[in-house]
Amino acid sequence: MLREWHKLYSMPAADKKMHPFFFLFFRRGIPFAGIALSVAAIVVFPDYIGWALIASIAILADLQSTFNSGGLYLAKRRGIVRWDGHWLQVLRPFFRVLRLEDKWLLSFCAWNNQRVWKALADRQSLTALALLPHCVQSIKCSAKVVEDVQSCTRCGACMIECIADAAQKCGWDVKIAPRSREAYAEARKSRPDIVIAVACPDRLAKGLFKLPKVPSLAIPLELPHGMCVDTAFDFQGLASAMAHFPSQAQAPKIQPLKRKRNLLGG
What beta strand segments (E) does the chain contain? Predict the structure, then answer.
């Protein structure tokens, strides 16, 4: 069943776009260049050796955070994500001009995924949460899955059925959010040990900044039919992550996130 869904709905091209090298080339390359310039300054201007050494030490301290892994990375994740986020945002306008903004964002997400995967490789999460947008549901489907995911008719028109089955098998909690702010609020409220978020590249990066302490895996949406319409993503990646990090929760809760106005009105 999972194999059939992967063939129908996963997007192999997404994996090719998500590679950490592009982000790391600049994240580590620029500081290394700064160190080289500092060393050159010591040779050319020996009277300023003190300032050059201070600059080199500061740059090395910045670089060191990119090599943290395992428990040390998890302990310092909040600061690491926020600092890497500054690099992402500072260089983002440059790549926007070059029409490489999505590639830049996805490379950052891939770097995040690689570090989280390695840090949690030998751990079993106590609580696990998957956040998905409502646009993964087929636009032709009339089932009110945003209000109640159990209303899914299992017609095979979208991925909701298989997402629910995978979550049930691995003990994951799944939330279908109509808007990103509801997804952020739910993650803060439940405080899971690991999150898998499915969204557009911009929303993924924003979510990592808003929840820097929570280890999160980011899976980008593909938009074969335009914005927020019958979107697709790497379902095999989602299912593999759920299986690799099974939750110890006894009974997974698979439910949608209702809009605030509905809650107030109800």
Answer: 128-133, 173-177, 194-199, 216-220, 254-256
User: pLDDT tens-digit profile of 167-213?
Assistant: 888 888 888 887 888 888 888 888 888 999 999 999 999 999 989 99
DSSP 3-state assignment of 125? coil
**Segments forming the whole domain that contains residue 187:** 2-265
pLDDT at 219 over 90: yes
DSSP assignment of 101-122: HHHHHHHHHHHHHHHHHHHTTT
Q: What pLDDT, in 10s, does the model give residues 13-39?
A: 344 467 899 999 999 999 999 989 888
**What do you get for the CA distance between the two ends of the chain, in Å?**
37
- Long-range Cβ pairs for the range 221-225 (8 Å, 24+): 221/133, 221/135, 221/136, 222/11, 222/13, 222/14, 225/139
The tally of domains found in the chain comes to 1
Name residue 195's beta-bridge partners: 129, 216
Residues 55-75 have a mean pLDDT of 90
CA-to-CA distance for 191 and 186, rounded, in angstroms? Answer: 8
What is the chain's length?
A: 266
Tokens of 263: 């809650």
Mean pLDDT value of segment 148-171: 77
Give the whole-angstrom CA distance, residue 192 versus residue 128.
Answer: 5
